[in-house]
Amino acid sequence: MDDADFDAQLRAAIDGKTKPLGALGRIEALAAQIARLQGTLVPRMDTCTLVIFAADHGVAAEGLSAFPQAVTVEMVRNFLAGGAAANVFAATLGAGVQVVDAGVAGAMPDHPDLIRRPVGRGTANLRHGPAMTPDQAARALATGAEIARAAPGDALALGEMGIANTSSAALLLHRLTGVALERLVGRGTGLDDAGLAHKNAVLAAASARVPERLSPDAALAEFGGFEIAMMAGAMQAAAEAHRMVLVDGLIATSAAAVALGRAPHIRPALVFSHRSGDAGHAAALEALEAQPLLDLGMRLGEGTGALLAWPLLRAAAAMLCDMASFDAAGVSRPA
């Protein structure tokens, strides 16, 4: 069956359900997206895994966060203990959780559930030079892809933890989308006005280090983080395996910008789960022509927004698979 025939059958299947045409709004579009990705009129969305990638950023030494870098390790411990918001949401929604050391600077806990794949002990300070070498960027991308392929689930939700990672995200989005840097730089974990001005100055200077146009891989090496690189690799691998990818907030969206720059064909697998409260996220989504499902004012990260979109994917697939048609239910069609 060619794409045109499949789309015609898909449209007829959705329009033939016991509802007015278009009455389920974006759920219908989401159902069609899932069906096209899986190549079937009866798609399933039964299982989801959240993978949280944790890493540190050398630019934290510039004082760009209200929290110390030690919080990265402390939050990894919290994830492993099941105490974070992401853990609570995942447990409530029946999603699995995996935690990855992508490159944390501090000493990691000895825990059987921690996936240890560090590329380094944090990136270098991007204010003064590249955050990572091209080899490190390639290794991180490949590691993220490997982890995604091994993670179970019809859908993959991706989260992150890393003090100062909003700085990397803003720089990546600026260089890959062309959005003005000042529109993308926010208060992160709670900077005051002076702290925000300092952050803007540091990131502007970092961007000015490399005035030439950069490929996605080169931008990642210059300004990225190990966790962002692994998310980008995971997104590409999961999408190419015909699995839905739930993109979280600002940092995950910067990973999506890298992944889409490297592999534009993965776009049909990506679901931008929410518009976060981070100052630059709305601008980033607009630049990527992405329509988020939710807008809850959240700016936590960890994959929390991605998880909250998971029930919508399940509902969309169930609508297409399980909802009665007019003919099957004996309900009169609209005139």
Report on the architecture of this protein.
This protein has two domains: 3-44 and 318-329, Nicotinate-nucleotide-dimethylbenzimidazole phosphoribosyltransferase (CobT), small domain (5,6-Dimethylbenzimidazole Phosphoribosyltransferase, Chain: A, domain 1); 48-312, Rossmann fold. The protein contains 14 helices and six strands. It has helices spanning 3-15, 26-38, 70-81, 85-93, 134-150, 165-177, 181-184, 193-208, 216-223, 226-240, 250-262, 281-287, 304-322, 326-329; strands at residues 48-55, 96-103, 114-116, 155-161, 244-247, 270-272. Helix 11 links the parallel strand 5 (244-247) and strand 6. The longest helix has 19 residues, at 304-322. Pfam families: DBI_PRT. One of its GO terms (molecular function) is nicotinate-nucleotide-dimethylbenzimidazole phosphoribosyltransferase activity.
